[in-house]
Structure formats: C-alpha cells, structure tokens
Amino acid sequence: MKILCIGRNYAEHIAELQNETPDAPVIFAKPDTALLQRNQPFLLPDFSQDIHHEIELVLRICKNGKNIEEKFAPTYFDAIGLGIDFTARDLQSKLKSKGLPWELAKGFDGSAPISQEFKPVADFPDLKNIDFRLEVNGEVRQQGNSGLMLHDFAKIISYISRFITLKMGDLIFTGTPSGVGPVQIGDQLTGFIGEEKMFDLAVK
Prior knowledge:
With 204 residues, the chain is an alpha+beta fold. It is built from four helices and 15 strands. It has helices spanning 11-16, 89-97, 103-106, 153-163; strands spanning 3-7, 26-30, 35-36, 51-53, 55-61, 77-84, 87-88, 112-113, 119-120, 131-136, 139-145, 171-173, 181-182, 188-193, 196-202. A six-stranded mixed beta sheet has the order 2-1-12-5-6-9, with helices on one face. The longest helix is centred in the C-terminal third of the chain and has 11 residues, at 153-163. Keywords: Hydrolase, Metal-binding. One of its GO terms (molecular function) is hydrolase activity.
C-alpha cells in the first residue's frame, strides 16, 4: 500500500501558513514506515524542535484505478478514517527556503497515525458535510468539515489517478483545516469524526 497526501486543501490553513492557493491539488507521499496504528504512542524525533499536528480525513481505496473520471471516483473508496499528518515544520521551512523537496519533513517514521477503525462510506449521509476535530489534552485545537475542502474527495481521486495508479488498500490523507500547532512530550491527542472517537494517542 501507499500513503498519498493532499496539501493546501483548506483556505484558512493556507492563510495561516501564508502559502499561495494552488490551482490544482498539491500531492505528496509518505512511505509505509510512516504509518502508526492501534493508538501506538508517537515518539518525538530528535531531528526537529517543532513537530506540528495536522488532523485529516483519510480515504481507504477499495479497488485499482487509473485515469478515473470524477463521476466514478466515489466507487473507488469504501471507508473513511481519521489520521494525523505530523510535520517537522522547522525542517520543512528550511528545505522549502532552499527550493528542495520536503519529504523528510513529512515522511519520517511514525508521521502518519491513523484510526484503527474506518467507517463505511454508507454510514455518511453526506460526504460533503463530515465534521471532524482534534483535541490536545482535552482542548479542541483543530476542527474542520469536508464541505470546506477546496478539492473534494472525487476531485482528489480523479486528479491523483491521472499520474499515479491507485490500488486497493492505498490511503489518501485529504488535507488539514486551520489550527495546526506544535506537540510536546506528555500531550494526549484525541481525534473525532462527529462525536465518535477515532483515536487516542500519547506523545512520548
């Protein structure tokens, strides 16, 4: 499986990081070693002093596809989960300032925690109205709604599949809302879709 991620997909998050709004989805990847499951703790790496949380809805691809038309894209994912795109913000800023790729700031080991359970698509009455949030130590830090995405699920799948064949079991992180911020040892991160708790992990 592979982990594909969408950057700059919420206008308020683009503004808070003072980035330009892209004309098309921004795509980057994480290796499978970034995956963190079963509420395993997130271990702060020693190469960064500024690791940020970015809560995201995650799509699970259920069949192989290439050059998928948007109208057919909803048939290519069967479940939605929740994840965190941990980002070494200091490393990312340094690499971006030199015009270099910033995969190291996004794809390091453990940088992609996901919920153990994924909810079937049929459980969602409206895919463009999914509330989700991240609490840090019981305080809401990020909250978003899929309706605020610049590129919806169908557009994301269709666009990616023009360049990269999607395969069963692939995961797509769909972008983060505003409110990203640093984590530190001792923090407890809890993610929700609606009022359903999806993960609860410690930072160590």
